[in-house]
Amino acid sequence: MSTTETKYLKWYNKVGYGSGDIAGNVVYVLLSAFVMIYLTDTAGMDPGVIGTLMMVSRIFDGFSDVIFGSLMDRTQTRMGKARPWMLWGYVGCAAMIVALFAIPLSLGDWEKYAWFFIAYTLLNSVFYTANNIAYSALTALITKNGGERVQMGSIRFMFAFGTSLLIQTVTVKGVELCGGGAVGWRNIAIIYAVIGLAVNTLSVLSVKELSPAELADGESSEEAQDKVSVAESAKLLVTNKYYLIILAVFLLSQIFTAMLNMGLFFMTYVLHDANLLGTFAWSINIPLIIGLLLTPVVVARLGQMFRVNLLGYVVAIGGRLGVLIAAYVGNVPLMLVFSGVAAFGMSPLQGTLNALIAEASEYTRLRTGKRVDGLMFSCTSLGVKIGVGLGTALSGWLLAASGYVGGAEVQSGSAIQMLYVMYVWLPLAANVVIFLLLTRLDVERANRKLREEAGEAIAE
Distances in Å between the alpha carbon of 412 and those of 130, 397, 404, 409, 426? Predict the structure, then answer.
């Protein structure tokens, strides 16, 4: 790893930081896994219209990510640059996730769509943007140690996938226990929002940002705090090929996940057992968590993230091919096994993504002398939001095109075939494209070369 060997974090700092993804996944999993079936089968809304509104909402996302990333880079408070945005941004997230699952059924169709669009846009373009960019940027702001960054990423995503597993396992039953129907969805959203708000606050308080001088690698304090204009910041991003590759990987990863989150539809109408969603969640998330535990050790042994991620995605593609074949022969146990194999192969990338973004940010610093950590980490928020939005919108459009009827006991043959396309074919295609992108993501070697040219010390 191309960073110093100084240790900046205690174990409780890493765990505290990682726990923040419990809060993030309260928002993420509810949006990606449950909002579509809530809107169609409970609120009685059309999936095609929902998909279109989601994509219109995404018009605001690119602007908001650049704005919040730039604002964070200019923020100077006693709490640091990122932590204030992470803390207060989640207050809005909690309010909006409840609003999304509390659409009054007495409203007319137009009013329902307006309510959804406003809450969805505020959640994604404002509050989630501020919280997620800040949370991700802390990877570069609380430590300069590459090994610690990989550990933070692994711990973070263990919490993320553990939360995803729990929510996917208990939500359907939880809605029933909370009153069922619209009341059940509203009450479960309130419970999750309160939990997310509490954990996010604890995560913010568990870490401390390094001073600008400590982050500057020998630059003066004035140079370290030198402000970069929004236009110059945007130029620095689009001329960093590694940022663009990581952004594309985020987009495809979220589209992949959005397609997998059609699982509730697939289990209900193809496998005829909605409770299998929890079983598949276990088969996917447990191997992911095991892989994340192993990732820091494997990366340290091999000395770089590049080779680990490539090997992992070879395994992931093989696993998704197995899922496809097992789905068409109707073998659920084999589907579960191959889902786990694919998830295990994907885990190294999940554990190293934040460290790779920090490396991409370092690449900009080494080439230009400018630090734009906040804006660089906008790819996490931008990629997640646009990826989830595009994936969920695509789900709505494909469902509508297939003739899916919300709440129907039996779906048409065309709708069933579309569920196969969405749940097994599109995730496989996304993994293949991600693998091709990863072959170009050798940012560690690029940074090592730049340091050698600049005469900087390199710690192995």
Answer: 42, 16, 7, 10, 20
Round to whole Å and give the CA distance between 247 and 250.
5
* Unique residue bearing structure tokens 């074949």: 325
What angle, 0 to 180 degrees and rounded to 10, lies between the N-to-C axes of helices 332-368 and 241-260? Answer: 160
The candidate with the shortest Cα–Cα distance to 240, out of 372, 62, 436, 430, is 372
Using alpha carbons only, give the angle 101, 102, 105 rounded to the nearest 5 degrees.
Answer: 115
Q: How far apart are CA 206 and CA 326, in angstroms?
A: 45
Count of domains observed in the chain = 1
Predicted local distance difference test score (pLDDT) of residue 153: 84
Residue type, 379: C
Query: What pLDDT, on a 0 to 100 scale, did the predictor assign at position 381?
Result: 65
- CATH code (residue 396): 1.20.1250.20
Closest by CA to 451, choosing from 388, 362, 379, is 362
Q: For residue 43, is it within any domain?
A: yes
Nearest Cα to Cα of residue 34 among 174, 140, 142: 174
- Per-residue pLDDT at 227: 61
> Cα–chain-centroid distance for residue 243?
16
Given this model, what pLDDT does residue 1 score? 43
Token pair recorded at residue 192 = 């999750």
Distance of CA 111 to the CA centre of its chain: 30
The secondary structure element, H or E, covering residue 74 is: helix 59-74
Find where tokens 């749940």 sit: 423
Contact between residue 243 and residue 237 where contact means Cβ atoms under 8 Å apart = yes
Going by the DSSP 8-state scheme, the letter that residue 303 receives in this structure is S
Give the dihedral of Cα atoms 249, 255, 258, 260; nearest 10 deg.
Answer: -80
Q: Tell me the C-alpha distance between 101 and 187, whole Å.
A: 9
| CA atoms of 12 and 10, how far apart (whole Å) | 5
User: Minimal CA–CA distance to 321: which of 313, 287, 311?
Assistant: 313
For 62, the token pair is 């690119």
Per-position DSSP letters for 106-161, written without gaps between them: TS-HHHHHHHHHHHHHHIIIIIIHHHHHHHHHHHHHS---HHHHHHHHHHHHHHHH
pLDDT under 70: residue ranges of the chain:
1-5, 62, 216-227, 230, 374, 379-381, 456-460
What pLDDT was estimated at residue 348?
Answer: 94
Domain enclosing residue 45, as ranges: 17-212+223-454
230 lies in a domain? Answer: yes
The pLDDT of residue 222 is 46
